[in-house]
Design goal:
alpha/beta, 2 domains, 10 helices, TIM Barrel, binds phosphoenolpyruvate, binds manganese (II) ion
Length: 339
Amino acid sequence: MIVILKPHSTEPEIQDVIEEVEKLGYTPHPIRGALQTVVAAIGDERVHQTLESLNALPQVERVLRVQKRYKLVSRESADGDTVVDVDGVKVGGKNFVIMAGPCSVESEDQLLATARAVRKRGASILRGGAYKPRTSPYEFQGLGKEGLRILDLARRETGLKIITEVLSERDVEHVAEAADILQIGARNAQNFQLLIECAKSHKPVLLKRGMNQKIEEWMLAAEYLLANGNSRVLLCERGIRTFETYTRNTLDLAAVAIAKNESHLPVIVDPSQGCGRADLVKVLCRGAAAVGADGLLIEVHPNPAEALSDGQQQVDFSTFGDLVTELAPFLQAAGRTLV
Ligand code: PEP
Ligand code: MN
């Protein structure tokens, strides 16, 4: 870290800072300029205590970090792109994966029809929420355990892998029995106890970016999973809150490119929550492929007009089929193979 002292700091004030830096476990290297002194503090910022507390000293102008706050999710910690094995489906590397299905599991008929339809059209992972985080307590909250039973049935019938959201720590164990991937939703993106519990389940985890989360905070949330022993993590960009009203959220494709640069973990894009409009899903999928995403999480419903949640953003079977077909040249240009 670098500690910048205020202009005209006295020698005793500089010595105080040097001593504090040493006390916190760093080796201080003072650089005396004509006007200002800078103390370079050498040491691993992720092991030693932070020096940001030195801002409290009156002679300190600013403390700057040199290293990133995340380590295990960073590219420095891995040799190339991580490929996450989801019970045989390999996510990451040159592969491109499509996860598709309804926002909510509503019935056996609805889920099984969707599972067959999306499998036939190119999906290898089935999504469907059994526990739904709804803004209003009067809205459909999901079928809970019955929803998990239906997801399990769909897995056994179609061979598709299952991704479903886990809302609370107390649900992790039984959701992990039905799911091949645990989804941590945007509203829980910084629920650190839930992250730790999901890490301990040793199931692959898809971590959504919170709707008001900075990229660094998203990486640090993923760091919780890796630091707690789970390296099978997928990052998921699903749009952030902005002033825009034409879309439900603003899908941040720049964040996808940045996450790919920063981290070795696969990055998935959810265009459905990302814009909240069925008519934009297809073009956003192309954009996601073009910026280097490793896969998509798409809401598909047999009859979106009758959906119990997020009807406005779910695509029907034929639109989903066209979307996958028309995505092919974009995947080819990006050097990806659909798995
Ligand atoms: C969802 O996938 O249906 C969902 C609730 O997602 P998010 O957490 O991104 O809002
Ligand atoms: Mn949804």
